[in-house]
Amino acid sequence: MDLLRFITAGSVDDGKSTLIGRLLYDTKNILADQMEAIERASKTRNAGEIDLALLTDGLRSEREQGITIDVAYKYFQTPNRKFISIDAPGHIQYTRNMVTGASNADLAIILVDARHGVVEQTRRHSLIASMLGIPHVIVAVNKMDLVGNSEDAFLEIAQSYKTLAEKLAIKDLTIIPVSALNGDNIVDRSESMSWYTGETLLSVLENVNVLKDQNQEDGRFAVQYVIRPQTDELHDYRGYAGRVQSGTFKKGDAIKVLPSERESKIAKIEFGGNEIPEASVLESVTILLEDDIDISRGDTIVSVNNSPIVSQDIEALICWMDDKKTLKPGNKYVLQHGTARSRCSIRGIEYQIDINSYEKLDEVEALKLNDVARIVLRTAQPIAYDPYQKNRANGAAILIDETSNVTVGACMIE
Amino acid sequence: MSISVNEASDIQREISERSAPDYLDQLEAEAIYIMREVAGQFERPALLFSGGKDSITLVHLARKAFAPGKIPFPLVHVDTGHNFIEAIEYRDTLAEQINAKLIVRYVEDTIKAKGLKEQTGKNASRNWLQTFTLLDTIEEFEFDACIGGARRDEEKARAKERIFSFRDEFGQWDPKRQRPELWNLFNGRIQKGENVRVFPISNWTELDVWAYLKREGIELPSIYFAHERELILRDGKLLNNTPVIEPDPEDQIVTRQVRFRTVGDMTCTAAVESAAATLDEVIAEITISRISERGETRIDDQQTEAAMEDRKKGGYF
């Protein structure tokens, strides 16, 4: 059984939390005492209808305002798969939270209110999903019960969404008519929408192939830590601890260390102190090399004839996340990419992207909270990267404010 | 890319033949990655170890992460003096077995040194006072990162917390000002005096922990398995019959066959009636259980809807 991480995007009124509540409820993942707590809370808040949204809103201010402020994680499983649901707020003022949630998602569920169709926020959420390289997108056209479960209404929305999706790099798209409130086409097929013959939401979640999404070609391994026991029996042991970001490494493979460009061969791969024949994407292992070369945290081990780009000049899409300070050309930050950190300086803002209309805005002087733009920056040390859309793990970076130490930017290197 | 068409199709074939990775392997790899980030990013980390199943899992993961080397940080326990003796014995034995440095600090000492006032009356607990000792210990050893076994599925406020959870110089968590946490790029940069709580098993569920303990053949303290015990029956919950729990006129003393599903302080951890004597039997029981872990066994979370959120803001782990 494997694991799928998905994000749900939509605004307060689209019934996003209700949808997650419904998934948990219909897959029998809500426990008796949690249900009782929801029933209790529902009674004090409204007419007594059970409000499944109360399951996901964890902070007091969220319950008070009835909105999701931060990213919340929920865990559930079916006989076929384990799920981590990432519930992110939909308001434009929380764009950074959605970007945060989307960064680790294999799949995005974008909610559309059947009464309103594709609206500004649908465009925004779709852009973020595509920009963050989420391979699978499900558009859940919710509240179908409020448009009389009409097939025509659904087809019209589906068509207008497809037009929008053509402008974005969405690899795998499924559009489903649902009612989260009534549970139609979430886990069980809808009797009131017999015209819909496609899959239910849960069926897509259970069957989507995420193994195929991993980059299996480009061998990349960022060194996190050097294991040197320095005991009598392990006197010369030097193991490079890290996680395979992409590709596969085997004993005997010729490798290169970046940015130093030194070459060697893999002498051994270990896991938990035991030798294993190979390590593939996302595995945390320890690599031992045949030659004693200088390697430390921040270096990247790559396949010898398949190199990433090594450069100090980087162009990236950025989502700006600081609510106090703006990003301006000339500003300096710490760039964290893989396990490497380097000071960097912003050389320019090429253009800003209006995340609702997708228009490019030129001559932008500064970026504010939640702005998305393409920027040029120069790092103090060379960075070994791949373009984000080709290799999510080795194309992502964050900017850190040098004085407050806060994470202020999410970068997708182009 | 420098691979030929033939090689590419070989890779494709290999991928389609390779089966999907098991979720426990995925969770384990993620936790090990997080442990190594702590070792790589911080000067003086510590692993908070109580002898409970979640922190036992952490120790096991840390051993795997740094094998064949030793765990590069000490194990730290804040002892309330109200712990189960079985958990304390397990703690000491394990630390000795794996040759880890164990630091124990006592809430009792903090109470005396600082003249702290203890809760009194029914359901009085030292749970809150633990925070004072923890913050003092962090200061004493200048720990910049503390690894803990909290999981997001335990409780609603925990579901919102980052894996690298920043705490200010007063140890406080501010849920509204959490650092964005993107991809696997954990930002552990802090100023002196601040610290980060790190939760490597954030994404594990209770059942995942049990399944992992079983798969890895990890031993647990005996109180996790069914045994006869003398207990206090209070408000429908079964508490260990111990002098540290202040008696209440309504209490009944009973003897039952029980196990503990979580192991916290005796004052706030309830037992469940059970005949499950092995890991398999415990897993079977939890799988069919219709009550959540903290709902069944924790007195401390049930006081208000935001009990955990409030404790965390004050520096609780």
Automatic annotation (TrEMBL), chain A:
PROSITE patterns: G_TR_1, G_TR_2
Gene Ontology terms, MF aspect: nucleotidyltransferase activity
Pfam families on file: GTP-eEF1A_C (PF22594), GTP_EFTU (PF00009)
Domain Tr-type G residues, every copy: 1-217
InterPro entries tied to this protein: CysN_GTP-bd (IPR041757), CysN_II (IPR044138), CysN_NoDQ_III (IPR044139), G_TR_CS (IPR031157), GTP-eEF1A_C (IPR054696), P-loop_NTPase (IPR027417), Small_GTP-bd (IPR005225), SO4_adenylTrfase_lsu (IPR011779)
EC number of the protein: 2.7.7.4
UniProt keyword Translocase, yes or no: no
Keywords, comma-separated and alphabetical: ATP-binding, GTP-binding, Nucleotide-binding, Nucleotidyltransferase, Transferase
NCBIfam families in the record: CysN (TIGR02034), small_GTP (TIGR00231)
Record protein name field: sulfate adenylyltransferase
Organism: Dyadobacter endophyticus
Gene that specifies this protein: cysN
Automatic annotation (TrEMBL), chain B:
Key words, A-Z: ATP-binding, Nucleotide-binding, Nucleotidyltransferase, Transferase
InterPro entries per record: PAPS_reduct_dom, Rossmann-like_a/b/a_fold, SO4_adenylTrfase_ssu, Sulfate_adenylyltrnsfr_sub2
Coiled coil spans: none
Phosphoadenosine phosphosulphate reductase domain residues: 45-270
E.C. numbers: 2.7.7.4
Xref: Gene3D superfamilies: HUPs
Region annotation (Disordered) ranges: 295-317
Pfam families recorded: PAPS_reduct
Feature: compositional bias, Basic and acidic residues: 308-317
Superkingdom of origin organism: Bacteria
GO-annotated molecular function: nucleotidyltransferase activity
Family stated for the protein in its record: Belongs to the PAPS reductase family. CysD subfamily.
NCBIfam families reported for this sequence: CysD, PRK05253.1, PRK12563.1
This protein's name: Sulfate adenylyltransferase subunit 2
Species, as recorded: Dyadobacter endophyticus
Gene: cysD
